[in-house]
Write a structure and sequence with these properties.
By secondary structure, the chain is α+β, with helices and mostly antiparallel strands. The protein is built from one helix and seven strands.
Amino acid sequence: MSKNTKTYILLGAVLLIWGIIGFKVFSAMSPEPEAPVLADNFNFKPKEQVKKDTFSILADYRDPFLGTMPPSKKKPKAKGVAKPKVQLPNISYTGLITDQNTKNHIFFVTISGNQYLMRKGNVQAEVTLVSGSSKNIRVRYKGIVKTIPLQNATQ
């Protein structure tokens, strides 16, 4: 065989291989549209879900690098003593006065039948006035904050 015939045979083989590769790439890039499949009676039944088995690892062994044991996580035992609920005194909000010069508000607050004139931050009978508006006030009694609405005079 001469040198030219070998070259032509190898050139034909290379063109054939690249032609096949090009055809596969071209056919993958532009697929032919398939006809949609329509089902008249389609019954869908989902598979039953299998509950996964779970586990946890308790690593309560000595640390091989530091040589120390992990801190023990002891749960505090609950004692049978329950905190007594704090009973709020009878508190009612009956009105306010606004000072025109300083824009300070003075609130009329009745605590257990005694009426007091209070400003924000004042304490009377262990009741602290936290904030207030013309519609309601917020008071704190032994750590409990409560909002008290304005009592109408017609009630």
